[in-house]
Amino acid sequence: MTAPAPPPPEARFTALFESTHRALLAYAVRRVAEPEDAADVVAESFLVAWRRIDDVPAGADARPWMFGVARRVLANARRGDRRRLALADRLRAELAVAVETPPEPDRDVERALARLSDDDQELLRLVAWEELGREEIAVALGVSRTAVRVRLHRARRRLAEALAALAVPDDDVAAVPATVDDRPAVKRSGPDGQVMGRWARAHHGIEEAR
């Protein structure tokens, strides 16, 4: 029995766009100075995807693959090699409804994060902002899952050290000692003693990548 023919490239590209463009727009808008520039990044990413439609992984791997493309486009844009595309107009029109305003970040965590290298920041944000698991991060960064585990462990440790360096007497923010597996926890005590802060709340934030 003859296997069914795969969908044509146009149908595959349309499905890829519909399933990933909002997540990519949110990813880009968090990393550019002006929200309008995010549309250009996403448009460029989908141009790459169209040119390489046969290389796009099937199923769930398509999403982290697109994050990897967007990451490389951002790197090129930062070097001044930015191209304007007609698709950007449509994405700009959707920007207001497609991207929710992110919660106010914990200022101490943001200050500590700014002390880390670009690679550490990107890795921790992929966990806390984009909620990617280790295997998805490995696809997005083009490295092995083991490399992600090692880099994430080191990035967490450096973040904990940066938080500890920022701590001052009587401050209500402290770096909690690492757990058994060396994962730092960020604690902000409220009146009821509960842990607060977006980085510590969202799916354990930086503390755990699935």
UniProtKB/TrEMBL annotation:
Residues 108-159 form the RNA polymerase sigma factor 70 region 4 type domain. Keywords: Sigma factor, Transcription, Transcription regulation. The keyword Transcription applies. One of its GO terms (biological process) is DNA-templated transcription initiation. One of its GO terms (molecular function) is sigma factor activity. Residues 16-83 form the RNA polymerase sigma-70 region domain. Pfam families: Sigma70_r2, Sigma70_r4_2. NCBIfam families: sigma70-ECF (TIGR02937). Belongs to the sigma-70 factor family. ECF subfamily. This is RNA polymerase, sigma subunit, ECF family.
